[in-house]
Amino acid sequence: NAGVTQTPKFQVLKTGQSMTLQCAQDMNHEYMSWYRQDPGMGLRLIHYSVGAGITDQGEVPNGYNVSRSTTEDFPLRLLSAAPSQTSVYFCASSGLAGGADTQYFGPGTRLTVL
Amino acid sequence: AQSVAQPEDQVNVAEGNPLTVKCTYSVSGNPYLFWYVQYPNRGLQFLLKYITGDNLVKGSYGFEAEFNKSQTSFHLKKPSALVSDSALYFCAVIPGGGSYIPTFGRGTSLIVHP
């Protein structure tokens, strides 16, 4: 199993550009989520999904869109990049299992917005 | 709403000495508690979790954690630290009762000195 994969590993954008961060998992997990990690802020939840066709907002959703057309994929779209979105982005997945399941994280995407 | 506190941004310990990384939480009901570790430029990896049963939980790499309901704590411990244990450690809580969205602490940087 590849687990959770993310592409790209690094990305530099100019203010106003758009892009999509890809996330895929091969564990047939129902729950997928996106976090951003900033120094001193820990992990903050952006969006999450409990299955194909179902998404919801997390703590910091503004400026980001998601969709979940398949169980495996959960892309994160930046509509118009801003310097405040410079961060490291992690995708995670887990089986729902009533909440007791372990989160599996991807390796991250380091995004810089100039 | 649930919350997790990791009161120390950084913990320093000499190799061979015992280590403790602290975590306290605030949730209603019976929580599920997790510890994750992040090595530089990597995603988070699962260490251990408490779901129910014995309050002392043993996990990967010789780590253990004790669930203390009266003190609402879940401190991570290891009897003898290794330089390779140096990393960022995150505590996470899920409230239970059907909830599945974890809340993460801000992380504690563990530095083990040779």
Description:
The complex is a heterodimer of chains A (114) and B (114). Chain A is mostly beta strands and 114 residues long. In chain A, 0% of the residues lie in helices and 51% in strands. Chain A has strands at 4-7, 10-13, 19-25, 31-38, 42-51, 54-57, 64-66, 76-78, 87-94, 104-105, 109-113. In chain A, strands 2, 4, 5, 6, 9, 10 and 11 form a seven-stranded mixed beta sheet that branches. Chain A has a four-stranded antiparallel beta sheet with strand order 1-3-8-7, with no helix packed on it. The mean pLDDT of chain A is 93. With 114 residues, chain B is mainly β. Chain B is 0% helix and 51% strand. Chain B is built from no helices and twelve strands. In chain B, strands 2, 5, 6, 10, 11 and 12 form a six-stranded mixed beta sheet that branches. In chain B, strands 3-9-8-7 form a four-stranded antiparallel beta sheet, with no helix packed on it. The radius of gyration of chain B is 14 Å and the shape is globular. Chain A binds chain B through residues 4, 31, 33, 35, 40-43, 45, 48, 50, 58, 90, 92, 94, 96, 98-108, and chain B through 9, 32, 34, 36, 41-46, 49, 51, 90, 92, 94-102, 104-107.
How many beta strands in the DSSP annotation of chain A?
11
Overall pLDDT of chain B, averaged?
93
Which residues of chain B sit in consecutive blocks of at least 5 with pLDDT less than 50? none
Q: How many helical stretches of chain B?
A: 0
Instruction: Give the CA-CA distance, first to last residue of chain A.
Output: 36 Å
Indicate the structural class of chain A: mainly beta
Shape of chain B, please?
globular
The major pleated sheet of chain B works out as: 6 strands, mixed
The value of Rg of chain A in angstroms is 13 Å
How many helices of chain A in DSSP terms?
0
Shape descriptor of chain A? globular
Radius of gyration of chain B: 14 Å
Measured distance between first and last alpha carbons of chain B: 41 Å
Kindly report the oligomeric state of this protein.
heterodimer
Which sheet architecture does the biggest sheet of chain A show? 7 strands, mixed
The stretches of 5 or more residues of chain A where confidence is low (pLDDT under 50) are: none
Percentage of residues in DSSP E strands of chain A: over 45%
Number of strands of chain B: 12
Determine the strand fraction of chain B and express it as a percent band. over 45%
